Amino acid sequence: MLIKLTTALLITSALALPQSEHIKLDTRDGDGGINGGWFGENDGKGAAVQAAPVFLFKRDNSGAWGANPTPCYPEGAGNSKGNGPNPGTDPTLDGSNCRNPGKYTGPFSKGEPFPAYFSTVWCGRIGEWRINYSLYFSHDTTHKHDWESATITFTEKQKGSNTWYRDTLILSQHSGHAKKKYSEVESVNMVPGDMDVRPIDGRNKNHPKVYVGAWKNPMYFDGTVVKEDRLGAIQQGDKYEPKGDDWWYLPGESDVVKSGTLEAYKGKYGDATSDPASIRDKICGY
After folding, report:
1. Beta carbons of 256 and 48 less than 8 angstroms apart
2. Bridge partners (DSSP) listed for residue 131
3. CA-CA distance, 220 to 214, in Å (whole number)?
4. How far is residue 282's CA from residue 228's CA, in Å, rounded to a whole number?
5. Secondary structure, 3-state, the chain
6. What does the alpha-carbon distance between residue 210 and residue 196 come to, in Å, rounded to a whole number?
7. Are 33 and 148 in contact (CB under 8 A)?
8. Which of 52, 83, 104, 255 is the most exposed place for a label (fewest CB within 10 A)?
9. What is the distance between the alpha carbons of residues 135 and 9, in angstroms, rounded to a whole number?
10. Phi, psi of 208 (to 5 degrees)
11. At a CB cut-off of 8 Å and minimum separation 6, what does 159 contact?
12. pLDDT tens per residue across all 286 residues of the chain
């Protein structure tokens, strides 16, 4: 499969975008599309910021998890010295040994910032742009280190228009992926700092809502849980995994980080083999 990264891609039809310190976000509905120039400039960071998911996290409000009510929460994938990968932490059955999401003030508390490592990829054979957002966790319930990701695909409604529309949302769930048409996904219009993330009926907005499991960190399209069961979540997956909307965070311009910054750490996350550098060449095959 032919995959071309934006650093090597020349789009002759793309309008040149002004170089500026900050990215001006478009707050119109997502079905307004994104100009192709955003994908070609600065490794596609403008498009990545414009379409970044809102990530939501679950808190144990019943006491059933034990002493620690918080989930495992994303953090930076490098070590404190900036010269190697995050060393990770030993696995636990809850959010212990993970970064804390931040102060809890009730449902939809704003979480602490975290990096979302993005890769913008041109999938030439299928005629799509794809942006992958990877989150790093210091562990899940079974091993040190964990990577999970959300990928948005973009297509042209009119060939040659160079306006690209969100088409599909692809979420990692352990070793597999789940897909859903973007028009069926909960989404919101907002800019970083805007706290209006509550609606569940928004469609075709700028930012999809992605619910992160509290134990093994997989990603889901909604917060529905049949039953919280730790063993069931480990063995059977989503219907037993706690997920909800107690914390949220939308990665902004300073949080959306090029995955190339982790190139030197490729394959150095133990059993977590889906680090951004390792999966970049697989993104078009999801």
Report:
1. yes
2. 120, 152
3. 11
4. 32
5. CCEEEHHHCCCCCCCCCCCCCCCCCCCCCHHHCEECHHHHHHHHHHHHHHHCCEEEECCCCCCCCCCCCCCCECECCECCCCCCECCCCCCCCCCCCCECCCCCCCCCEECCCCCEEEEEEEECCCCEEEEEEEEEEEECCCCEEEEEEEEEEEEECCCCCCEEEEEEEEEEECCEEEEEEHHHCCEECCCCCCCCCCCCCCCCCCEEEEEECCCCCCEECCCCCCCCCHHHHHHHCHHHCCCCCCEEECCCCCCEEEHHHHHHHCCCCCCCCCCHHHHHHHHHHC
6. 15
7. no
8. 83
9. 26
10. -70, 150
11. none
12. 333 333 333 232 233 333 334 666 665 556 678 999 999 889 999 999 999 999 999 998 776 676 778 999 999 999 999 999 999 999 987 778 899 999 999 999 999 999 999 999 999 999 999 999 999 999 988 899 999 999 999 999 888 999 999 999 999 987 789 999 999 999 998 865 666 788 888 899 999 999 998 888 999 999 877 555 555 555 555 567 888 999 999 999 999 999 999 999 999 999 999 999 999 999 999 9
pTM given for the model: 0.88
Q: Dihedral sign for Cα 9, 13, 18, 20, please.
A: negative
**Do residues 58 and 246 make contact, with C-beta atoms less than 8 angstroms apart?**
yes
**Which tokens go with 129?**
């742009």
AA letter at 33: G
Report how far apart, in Å, the C-alpha atoms of 72 and of each of 65, 244, 257 are: 13, 13, 21
In the structure encoding, which two tokens stand for residue 62, read together?
């019943």
